[in-house]
């Protein structure tokens, strides 16, 4: 029997490059597409096309063969330092929306069998995330919509676009809302890194007894999901025959940023002072709500945060030591 085939858009990125490797292990023939090759290791893809998915010709060309599964992860994105300053809003909205418009338009013409889209917890309304102890992020609470960033608005628009293609063109779409995915080989420096990677870098670079800077008072809460569990969730959603999402793929282990720092210090075996400074923050509290994923896919992430952080810290410490 021929291998199943998959196309991964954004295969040079953090989640995409890990997803390619997982699909290869599962026996897929994989084509990856991105503006760049993965930064930290060789791609696992059978075929890797460097291309700009904002360009309609690129989207048309990469779909020149039949794919069993398409994963659309490409987006103009980054952590709070990229998304919440407002400086990149036009690019974020234009670039990501164009990619999704192109992929659905040409995907429909190419008769792709199934397409996955990665949305984000950033679509949830700001008004439900003001109490750091009690954020509400159940799937149905997305409306009335009030995301706290243009990045979130684009994700919400694109979610709707995917489901419109499902309704009008009978496309088999799957949508997940990721909550802060982290792990080795993720962006860890340069301005697009997210909290866990930034924390690991700061602590790995600091001397025992030294000091690091934290944006805000550190009492803002978040949950973080290790990459392997994110990939397991994606594959479960793709394999479901009855459930399409949108569904949260995230951890329910909510921590304050101060506690995140304490956990990483524990892993590093260092004691470091936290200096709280002004910085871009996002919502006050956010946590995944996994009721729906448990109910529909009979599964939810369960690995403790500390385990994923231990693996990530060790990788980032190695990167820091190479500077
Ligand atoms: P990433 O930035 O590492 O990967 C995105 C990839 O898309 C990059 O390699 C980038 O080069 C590529 N890309 C951007 N514009 C492109 C274009 N015009 N043409 C071709 N490729 C292009 O991000 P990631 O963390 O791997 O995230 C993957 C997806 O998951 C994104 O859609 C992101 O919005 C979503 N998401 C991620 C998280 C997270 O915590 N990592 C949380 C919520 C949602």
Give the names of the bound compounds. nicotinamide-adenine-dinucleotide
CATH class of the largest domain: Alpha Beta
Number of distinct beta strands: 13
With strands numbered from the N-terminus, the spatial order across the biggest sheet is 3-2-1-4-5-6-11
Structural category: alpha/beta
Taken in chain order, the helices and strands follow as: EHEEHEHHEHEEHEEEHEEHEHH
**How is the main sheet built?**
7 strands, parallel
Q: In which range does the helix fraction lie?
A: 25-40%
Total of helices: 10
Radius of gyration (CA) equals: 19 Å
Please provide a written account of the structure.
With 323 residues, the protein is an alpha/beta fold. The chain folds into two domains: 5-181 and 224-249, 3-Layer(aba) Sandwich (Rossmann fold), CATH 3.40.50; 186-223 and 253-286 and 304-321, UDP-galactose 4-epimerase, domain 1. It contains ten helices and 13 strands. It has helices at residues 14-25, 56-62, 80-83, 89-109, 150-169, 195-205, 227-239, 257-268, 291-297, 305-322, and strands spanning 5-9, 29-34, 47-50, 69-72, 115-120, 173-178, 181-182, 211-215, 221-222, 225-226, 247-249, 255-256, 273-277. The strands form four sheets. It has a seven-stranded parallel β-sheet, sandwiched between helices. α6 crosses α8. The longest helix is centred in the first third of the chain and has 21 residues, at 89-109. The radius of gyration is 19 Å and the shape is globular. Bound molecules: nicotinamide-adenine-dinucleotide (NAD).
């Amino acid at each position: 029997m021929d291998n199943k085939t998959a196309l991964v858009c954004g295969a040079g990125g953090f989640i995409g490059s890990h997803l390619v490797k997982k699909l290869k292990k599962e026996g897929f023939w994989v084509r990856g597409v991105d503006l760049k090759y993965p930064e930290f290791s060789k791609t696992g893809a059978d075929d890797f096309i460097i291309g700009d998915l904002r360009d309609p010709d690129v989207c048309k060309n990469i779909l020149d063969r039949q794919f069993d599964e398409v994963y659309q992860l490409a987006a103009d994105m980054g952590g709070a330092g990229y998304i919440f300053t407002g400086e990149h809003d036009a690019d974020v909205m234009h670039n990501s929306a164009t990619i999704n418009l192109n992929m659905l338009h040409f995907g429909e013409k190419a008769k792709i069998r199934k397409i996955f889209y990665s949305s984000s917890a950033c679509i949830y309304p700001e008004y439900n995330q003001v109490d750091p102890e009690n954020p509400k992020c159940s799937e149905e609470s997305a409306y009335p919509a009030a995301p706290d960033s243009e990045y979130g608005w684009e994700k919400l628009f694109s979610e709707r676009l995917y489901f419109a293609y499902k309704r009008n063109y009978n496309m088999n779409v799957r949508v997940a809302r990721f909550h802060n995915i982290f792990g080795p080989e993720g962006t860890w420096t340069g301005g697009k890194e997210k909290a866990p990677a930034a924390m690991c870098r700061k602590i790995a670079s600091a001397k025992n007894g030294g000091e690091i800077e934290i944006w805000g008072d550190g009492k803002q809460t978040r949950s973080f999901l290790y990459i392997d569990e994110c990939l397991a969730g994606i594959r479960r959603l793709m394999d479901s025959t009855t459930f399409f999402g949108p569904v949260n793929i995230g951890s329910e282990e909510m921590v304050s940023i101060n506690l995140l720092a304490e956990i990483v210090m524990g892993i590093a075996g260092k004691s470091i002072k936290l200096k709280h400074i002004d910085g871009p923050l996002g919502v006050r509290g956010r946590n995944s709500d996994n009721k729906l994923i448990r109910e529909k896919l009979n599964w939810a992430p369960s690995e403790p945060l500390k385990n994923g952080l231990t693996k990530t810290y060790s990788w980032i410490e190695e990167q820091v030591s190479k500077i």
